[in-house]
Design goal:
This protein is an alpha/beta fold. The protein has one domain (about 5-45, about 55-295): Vaccinia Virus protein VP39 (Rossmann fold). It is built from eleven helices and eleven strands. It has helices at about 25-30, 35-40, 65-70, 95-105, 120-130, 170-185, 205-215, 230-240, 240-245, 270-275, 285-290, and strands at about 15, 20-25, 85-90, 110-115, 140-145, 155-165, 185-200, 250, 260-265, 265, 290-295. The strands form two sheets. It has a nine-stranded mixed sheet with strand order 1-2-5-4-3-6-7-11-8, sandwiched between helices. A two-stranded antiparallel sheet has the order 9-10. The two termini are about 25 Å apart. The relative contact order is 0.14.
């Protein structure tokens, strides 16, 4: 499967500044609405306890989980003491997932590539790396860019990971990104996209969709298209990923919802309590699940 428009870029096309690779047209990227939105979100996203503001004696310095808690979902299944040559993380943020995989699962690697559009999040990632030294000894390549074109060689990555990111990427872009992921992933490599797709059958999303249609002019650009399990499988197949990883799983998350937490920024009374009380039968899980995860089975 060829990459977008048969165009390839490498890190040689980027400028390294303060430990972060920036595209040479960074000023143009910086002027986009998407970039400005995520830089703004990145300044506070899971950031109520910022590591750079913590005293040396703060418990946060000894226990990284005090920043945001331990991730759940598919990450809990990840094996202990695994070693790979290279890892690529799409939408790496400030390093929440590699922190967990390195510290709790003892995952080791020689090279880590983290790509995110938010410069503010990447600067916090470097701070977290400095404080907690996740993936010790590995080469770090932290890249501030949109992920549609990956500055990475074909068939060079052992493990591609992403957490709650694809649901925020428009449909056409996510399809291009999946093609790029397929290009850089080694045959027989591993991919893990945890809680990465919104479920189109979920009543909570359907309510949001209805409200959005009432006001088509002003819509939340972060809240995007949802998919069924079959549509996700079709996208993975079309990208070429399933050729490299024939055995894979698309499964509903264990987070369920019939009511959105907020509508147009207004909290919905008792929505959290009601959603957390849901215990759907096996036949209803694909309907009520908030989203889907997708991952190869060769861990």
């Amino acid at each position: 499967m060829s990459s977008l428009f048969n165009t390839k870029i490498s890190l040689n096309d980027f400028l390294l500044r303060d430990g972060i690779y920036f595209p040479k047209d960074y000023q143009q990227l910086n002027s986009t609405e998407q970039k400005q939105r995520w830089d703004k979100i990145g300044k506070t996203y899971y950031g109520s306890q910022k590591i750079e503001q913590a005293a040396e004696t703060s418990p946060i310095k000894q226990d990284y989980t005090l920043l945001t808690g331990r991730p759940g979902g598919t990450w809990l299944k990840f094996p202990v003491n695994k070693s790979v040559d290279s890892i690529l993380e799409i939408g790496c943020g400030y390093g929440r997932i590699p922190l967990f995989l390195s510290k709790d699962k003892n995952l080791r690697c020689q090279r880590y590539y983290g790509i995110d559009i938010s410069e503010s999040l990447l600067r916090r990632l470097l701070k977290c790396k400095q404080e907690y030294d996740f993936f010790p000894g590995a080469e770090f390549h932290v890249i501030c860019a949109s992920a549609e074109l990956l500055p990475i060689e074909d068939n060079s990555i052992d493990l591609v990971i992403s957490n709650c990111v694809f649901m925020h990427i428009p449909d056409a872009q996510i399809r291009n990104l999946l093609v790029e992921i397929s290009r850089v992933l080694k045959p027989g490599g591993i991919f893990i996209f945890n809680h990465s797709f919104h479920n189109k059958s979920c009543p909570s999303h359907q309510i949001h969709n209805f409200v959005r249609r009432l006001n088509p002019v002003k819509q939340n650009p972060v809240y995007l298209k949802q998919y069924s399990a079959d549509e996700i499988k079709a996208m993975l197949t079309a990208s070429g990923i399933t050729t490299k990883c024939p055995q894979y799983t698309v499964e509903p998350t264990q987070e369920y919802a019939i009511l959105p937490q907020k509508i147009k920024g207004i909290p919905v009374p008792f929505a959290t309590t009601i959603n957390r009380s849901l215990k759907p039968s096996a036949t209803m899980k694909e309907t009520l699940a908030y989203g889907y995860s997708a991952y190869s089975n060769n861990w």
